[in-house]
TrEMBL record:
Pfam families: PaaA_PaaC. GO terms for biological process: phenylacetate catabolic process. Transmembrane segments: none annotated. GO terms for cellular component: cytosol. It comes from Roseinatronobacter bogoriensis subsp. barguzinensis. It comes from the Bacteria. NCBIfam families: PA_CoA_Oxy1 (TIGR02156). SUPFAM superfamilies: Ferritin-like (SSF47240). This is 1,2-phenylacetyl-CoA epoxidase subunit A. GO terms for molecular function: phenylacetyl-CoA 1,2-epoxidase activity. InterPro entries: Aromatic_CoA_ox/epox, Ferritin-like, Ferritin-like_SF, PaaA, PaaA_PaaC.
């Protein structure tokens, strides 16, 4: 079904309908699920919302890794709440994608077979407790930078899901920064752990915004349709501008000697991430890709009995309802 949807792109792009649709987008109207939309618009949304949902679900794994090892009861409760929020975000997003005619099962199968992607960032390991700080600070920080503009995206269910998600992401970012503050102001060993986490997560966080604008295949069309509100490089620059002073406040060093305030552009100069590494990671060759998919595959198989039970119950209810009518 996912493959069929991809193939059916441009099957109904009648020029008059397309022009009327674009006029609605340009006027800032929201598009709702039952309204006419070009196949390419629907396909792009399924791809982006589905990828986003998968990122939230797979994104539970690196932090879930530390729930049993959180240093205090309070930290454990906070981390648990954050990871549960991520599951919730995945569910809102799967629901938003379902309004476009694809089921959650189909999306999950596309993830497990490698047809669909999830964010590159979750293919990096979380090696120390300081990584919980770096993930909250940098990964959620990058997610917010990307998602705040998406609250104004043209597809109604996606925009509405983003409003709630962004509120929760702010708490996630704050809790990460709070961990970093404790570590950076702790013992020299703790500060070194915080610096090491920043060193390892800096470039992967910059990669979250996608390839540089010249290599972004979808940006132009997605921005015309207001599925994306900014280019990848614009958001990456905003993220760097926000994060460098936060690192200074922590007394930590961004692992890039090229980071320097540029008065003329009103932003920081910085080095590009290693794009070869990025493309390898999204092709499936990152440090944890196999482990992440294996964990999702196992969860899918372990949950089969429950899904079967729910379906059997729903079928029984339907039969009872038909008999009563
Ligand atoms: N990872 O043409 P573009 C979170 C792919 S936040 C993997 O520029 P596009 C919260 C892209 O799909 C993370 N693949 O693509 C959290 C395309 O390949 P395709 C999720 C990437 O779509 C925090 C190709 O490269 N957020 O989970 C990545 O216009 C902490 C060409 O790229 C979202 O998904 C990447 N980083 O722009 C959870 C936000 N970047 O599909 C737990 C919504 C690019 O043709 C813990 N998504 N690719 O095979 C977006 O805004 C966009 O989809 C971008 C990419 C900006 C990610």
């Amino acid at each position: 079904m996912y493959a069929q949807m991809v193939k059916s792109e441009a099957s109904n792009d009648d020029p008059a309908l397309l022009a009327a649709f674009q006029a609605r987008i340009d006027a800032g109207e929201k598009i709702e699920p039952k309204e006419w939309m070009p196949e390419g618009y629907r396909k792009t949304l399924i791809r982006q919302i589905g990828q986003h949902a998968h990122s939230e679900i797979v994104g539970q794994l690196p932090e879930g890794n530390w729930i049993t090892r959180a240093p205090t009861l309070e930290r454990k409760a906070i981390l648990l709440a954050k990871v549960q929020d991520e599951a919730g975000h995945g569910l809102y997003l799967y629901c938003a994608a379902e309004t476009l005619g694809v089921s959650r099962d189909e999306l999950t199968e596309a993830l497990l077979s490698g047809k669909m992607k999830y964010s590159s960032i979750f293919n990096y390991p979380t090696l120390t407790w300081a990584d919980m700080g770096a993930v909250g600070w940098l990964v959620d920080g990058a997610a917010i930078m990307n998602q705040v503009p998406l609250q104004r995206t043209s597809f109604g269910p996606y925009a509405r899901a983003m409003v709630r998600i962004c509120k929760e992401e702010s708490f996630h970012q704050r809790q990460g920064y709070d961990i970093m503050m404790k570590m950076a102001r702790g013992t020299p060993e703790q500060k070194a752990m915080a610096q090491d986490a920043l060193n390892r997560f800096w470039y992967p966080s910059l990669m979250m915004f996608g390839p540089s604008d010249k290599d972004s295949v979808h940006s132009a069309q997605s921005m015309a349709w207001k599925i994306k509100m900014n280019t990848n490089d614009e958001l990456r620059q905003k993220f760097v501008d926000q994060t460098v002073p936060q690192a200074e406040y922590l007394g930590l060093t961004i692992p890039d000697p090229a980071v320097k305030w540029n008065e003329e552009k009103g932003g920081y100069d910085f080095s590009e991430p290693d794009w070869t590494e990025f493309f390898e990671v999204i092709k499936g060759n990152g440090p944890c890709n196999a482990e992440r998919i294996e964990a999702r595959q196992k969860a899918w198989e372990d949950g089969a009995w429950f899904r079967d039970g729910l379906m059997a119950h729903a079928a029984k209810q339907r039969t009872a309802q038909v008999a009563a009518e």
